[in-house]
Amino acid sequence: MNQETKTALLNAASIDIHAHAVLTQTMGSAGPYGPELGRSDDNQPWFRVGDYQLDGVRYEGSPFMELERRLAAMDTVNLDMQVLSPNPLTYFHFIEPAHAVPFCHEHNIALSAWVDEAPNRIAAFAALPMQDITAVCDELTFAVHELGMLGGYIGSDIGRPLNDPMLDVFYDKCVELNVPLMIHPAPAGIDGPAGDANLLQFDL
Fold it and tell me: In this protein, which residues make up the domain named Amidohydrolase-related (predicted)?
């Protein structure tokens, strides 16, 4: 983390640590899984991730994708800092490592550029390819040491239990780097097996 961001975080009266970004530079970087933006025949926006398509949510021209609009929105609510993280639709924990690893790397580089543009307003968490333990440790180290990110950000469903002993090496890396790991729920069935249909009535 650069000194300007560290000072801003220490002095901020208000910090939003739950804020997501959708980055132009990452479009198509997960191969056949996208992500991809487009519009329907009736000009309604859509966002595709693998076989899942989110209809009617406008990312383009919004604070999700434009830093200046985000900063202006923060100003309207007197928010000093935001710590940005990946869109939950793009955790990509269930796709092949050959696609997940480059996506996370591109996402982290693109998001760190936002931090560089507004280091006294924006900080970031890293997207992580949980399919490959060696790759995830390498990406977290790169994101923290080279990009100045605050820690890692993953979904609650990563294809194995969060207490799986295979993850101990990753958790040890978080401890070694002395960074937090944020765990965020994501809808089942986006890039992996569909969840229990009974939970849909509760938006779970």
Answer: 15-188
